[in-house]
Amino acid sequence: MNHIDRKAYLMACKMSGVIPARSILKNVIHEQVEIRRRVMGPQETKACAAALVRNMNVKSLDLTGNNIGNDGANYMADVLKENYYITTLRLAENNISSSGLVSLAAEIIMSRNLKVLDLSGNGFKEQDAEYIAAIIESNKILRELYISNNEFRELGGELLAPALGNNDTLEVLDLSWNHLRRKGAIAICSGLKDNVGIKTLNLSWNGFHLMGCKAMAAALETNRTIKSLDLTSNRIDLECLKYLLKGLKVNEGLERIMLAKNPITSEGALVILKVIQESEVSTLTFVDIHTQCVSHTFIDMLCDVRDKRDLQVKYGLLLQQKAEEITEDDLMNEDPMMVLHEFSRQKRLRLVDLFNQLDKDGSKSLTYEEFSEGLLAVGIPMSSKGLDKLLRKLDKDGDGEVDFGELMQGQKEFTRKLLMIKSGKDEKSREEVEKFEELQRKLTLLLKPKKEKPKLVEAARKLSVIKDVEHATEEEKKEAAQAVFAIFRRKKLPDTPEGEGNTGESADAETQTKPSGFGKLAGLFKKS
What is the mean pLDDT of residues 446-450? Predict the structure, then answer.
């Protein structure tokens, strides 16, 4: 049998006028034939097909990158028509267009053996998706289909979608680099809602953006079979990500998701972890955001999540962030009642008691100045200007004063509102709760005691302002002398016994590095 196959190949080569390929002669008797990027062309493909028509050994045929064209595709269709043993066929990057695809599709639809098909990189157009859709819908044997790097675009996505909904046997689908976007992305996701077979799905580089993410979220809410989803480079920003995560949060089947090369930001990375942490049903075990820089907060949260579940996250560089600085500007645009309520809670104050204490004349109203001075006195972390802006929002009737009734009514309304949003289950309520929690965090940071500067730094600051010792005031001389004393104590110059360390050199070095007048200041210290 082996000799017959080789003989058939040699005869076909002679008739076609092509040189026999050693790789074909060698492998035609084995299960796998791999001839990649040899640029065989149609005639050499015809000779290869002659050796495979009745071959019972070859199970896998890989002719990637051989420019076989439509004629070569027709020859491969003839092979599939007669050969019942080939289970894997890879014809990627072969310049096959519509006519060649028609011939292949006709035989693939009828095939009862082909399980893996690769037609990537052939430049198929939008209408060609109709033939791919026919393969997906009609062939129940095919398990893996690779059709990336084509040009199906929006129309192609719409043509493929119904077939996905009607197929329950395909397990691996690669639709990457097909410009699906907008309507095409929405259609594909719609088809996935009804699909119960696909386990590995690659939709990378398809421009999903907002519309696609919303559609994918809807698909994930119902689809329970997809285990691996690749959405690499789909123009998914933070807004898009939040919509996508709505579906991810309730999905019970997905185990791996790839989101690299999307502008999700470091905040988006945190949002992903938060959703996984809060989800009661998520089965995610791997997240790929390897191009996204992350913060120290992300690392801390990841450790917390890993304490409770198995999760691997592939992330980018760690941002070397400065400690977060919260200023009163962060509170300017907030609801004034929200700010006052949370501040009084953290300070353990009652606004009504503070109001009554400040209302000396019992008029039941306070000017902005009186109210702001009272709040500043109890330590609210804002300036008079910032408080003025907040109090103007609180002054409902605009009379320039905050009435007791306005304050109590505002507090009552806010308390009722807070109870409603905390008990609400809809998305708007959750967003309001998140907003309030963020305000709590900001106020907590603002109320945190500021660390005092090291004494030596403060001493050096005092020393630096003395430029002319002889014309300095007595108070300046005293402060400068204390600064010198602090520096000497830090250096331990007076107390170091002779022969210990290198104190002499240090003293010289110290004197040389100080501004003019340092020696005179030292003299002032000695005189004192």
Answer: 61
